[in-house]
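Weekly modeling sync, notes
Attendees: S.R. (lead), two postdocs, one rotation student

Agenda item 3: backlog of single-chain predictions. S.R. asked that every request posted to the team notebook include the full sequence so nobody has to chase files. The rotation student volunteered to paste the first one in as an example of the format we agreed on. Action items at the bottom.

Example entry:
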Amino acid sequence: MSVPVSVEPSPEQPRRRRGLQTLRNQAAAVPRAWLPGAIGYACLLIGLVDIASAVFPKLRHSKMHSFAGQLPGGTTSLAAVGTMMIGILLVLLAHALRRRKRRAWRAVCVLLPVGAVLHIVRWHQIGPAVVSLAVFAVMLVHQREFYAKADPRTRWRALVNLIAMGTVSGLLGLLIVSTRTKYEIGHPALFERLQHVAYGLFGFEGPIRYTNERMSDLVAYLLGGLGLLTAFTTAYLALRPGKPKPELTPEDEEKVRGLLDRHGERDSLGYFALRRDKSVLFSPTGKAAISYRVVSGVMLASGDPVGDVEAWPGAIKVFMAEAREHAWVPAVMGCSEVGGEVWTREAGLDALELGDEAIVDTSTFSLAGRAMRNVRQMVKRIERNGYSCQVRRVSELTVEEKYRIAEAAARWRGTDTERGFSMALGRFGDPLDDNCVVVTAHKDPEEGESGDDLKAVLHFVPWGPDGISLELMRRDRAADPGLNELLIVAALQAVPALGVRRVSLNFAMFRSALARGERIGAGPVLRAWRGLLVFLSRWFQIESLYKFNAKFQPEWEPRFLVFPNTRDLPRIGFAAMQAEAFITLGMPRFGRKRQREGLMPAPAGQTVTEAA
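Predicted structure, as returned to the notebook:
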């Protein structure tokens, strides 16, 4: 006879069941990656059909055409205008739907049913109405997929909308007028058609006359609707409250500086988290932080998280949660190998080697030896030409010297916009940056000459207690070639007296590909990739930076780009070039002089030039 034996569950079993349930809940909560895209493209297609139905008369004919013809002309004409306006709005909102924007979801949930009713009432087409209602039902069932908050607002969008919508409205208006030639009286020329469109967009009667009064009213309503939609969307974007640009608040800056004091020696890019046009997120414990900027829907961070490595996962989770909440694409530029490993492990992202950072150990640097022959000869030649260098902490400069250096650096800049994001501070001479190191090159004017003796400047930011990282390199374009080499050598030879052992120079993109591609035995793919990089170096300093850094025999530290998917790389690359100011989308300065602001503001009531 068998006796039932009760087996006590082990303490691990409830824990495992809870863990499995948690995993199931997380899996159920994971958004469907394909659904917003499918709905967005469906709304785009519906919008295009609506626009086509309003613009092209032949697309409206069906068995119910005779019934629709019995409706009052004003009613059917207004329905045509409504259908076209809904179609344009659906096309505009399709991209936001694909990005899971909640506001776009709310707007489309209103537009789709209204559009379906208008199709039935005026266009007497059951098919498009059924499709619209089906998409509307899917959106209601899966409304949790659309959770993202709106992007930061800016007044520039109103101006861009006015130009873009004005152009589209003009082209659509010309198409509307040109597809109704059989109703026109006479044979109006292209200029008269353009006049009619321009008058119609502003609600006035144009020069073209129609044989059918209903057709005349329909064209007028359609053109007036396009103008009204352009004015309404522009006014909405211009009048809604603006959201401030990303900025580092004084409280956040103080916290980040505290983290750098304790852990700043870990990453040479850590000090650039103090750029004041970045936002910052902290880990739940406050022991780590990530600075970022949102550019074209990409949440772009640079370097490693600042702070304790053990707190990095917490900061990364906060970062990813913020990206999910707004449906931004998360990306990190220039993180170290350790940082890349943490990002890929904690956030499930991928990593791509972006290039190498040149780091020189000042305790072993020397101009002796055959490898340094070219640099040694160039430095000697520049010194014989009368150039000398000064290496100082920024705290040693007077206010007048700070303004003088800042004004000169802005004057020597090749563009109107200050470039840099991942390895640039964007300011000079701030009292909180007194530990920075500045290297200046001077040349006394020759007899009969007048002018400033300042010819070039280097600016380094702190990298922990015994390191500095190059932030700015500018020189007078009229100065002798080789001046940058003199500045670097002067810095490497003088900073050990300031307690600096490590110096981070420029970042060389795709250095390994350039180095391997020029070696004997390199394959055809590698040679082709190097050839492309050399070709791009005509516009971007890729090969030149690598060769310049290599002169000083540095140690190369790889840097990585962290990203979600390969398909996001073009978008991330475009956003990164915007952040670095290689691409600027601002409006052109028509009729205005070029203005180059300095790296530090002048006192109240005084220009930078006067302060210098």
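Discussion: group reviewed the output briefly. The first strand starts at residue 279 and ends at 282.
Action items: rotation student to repeat for the remaining queue; S.R. to check formatting next week.
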